[in-house]
Design goal:
Layout (H helix, E strand, L loop, with lengths): L2 H6 L5 E3 L2 E4 L11 E4 L4 E4 L5 E2 L1 H9 L3 H11 L9 H33 L4 H10 L1
Length: 133
């Protein structure tokens, strides 16, 4: 699917050279810092750091899990994805939810520490890393 068409349903995008720009739906802003790259089929917000593809965009925006987003997009283009067994599905959903929560926690921690490293509080750590080469 066309990344600009899918994201463009939720964000007003305007062509800006080789990319498309708009206001980020994940944080409030007045000037566009949200870019959609058609060649690489991804988006990047230079304001809040959000990055991903059509699937991650819809997951974050709609609060749905990956399989649900894939099924919806597949249905739009006429592809049917069969449902899994109900017993297997409940266990798989529990594991997937747990895995998603761990990924979200790790992502938040990584963003926090990366920002901390670049802040004034990370000066000693940056010196140490520079000494290590």
């Amino acid at each position: 699917m066309d990344v600009v068409a899918v994201i463009g349903r939720h964000v007003e995008l305007k062509r800006a050279g080789r990319t498309w720009k708009g206001n980020c739906p994940f944080h409030g802003e007045r000037t566009p810092s949200f870019h959609v790259y058609t060649e690489d089929k991804h988006y990047k917000c230079y304001g809040c750091g959000e990055y991903g593809n059509v699937f991650t965009f819809l997951q974050k925006l709609q609060g749905k899990e990956f399989p649900a987003v894939v099924r919806e997009l597949a249905a739009e283009v006429g592809i049917e994805i069969p449902e899994a067994d109900a017993q297997e599905s409940a266990e798989a959903q529990r594991r997937r939810k747990e895995r998603n929560e761990l990924h979200a926690a790790n992502d938040a921690a990584a963003r926090y520490w990366a920002a901390r490293l670049q802040s004034r509080f990370g000066e000693a750590a940056r010196r140490y890393l520079a000494s290590r080469g």
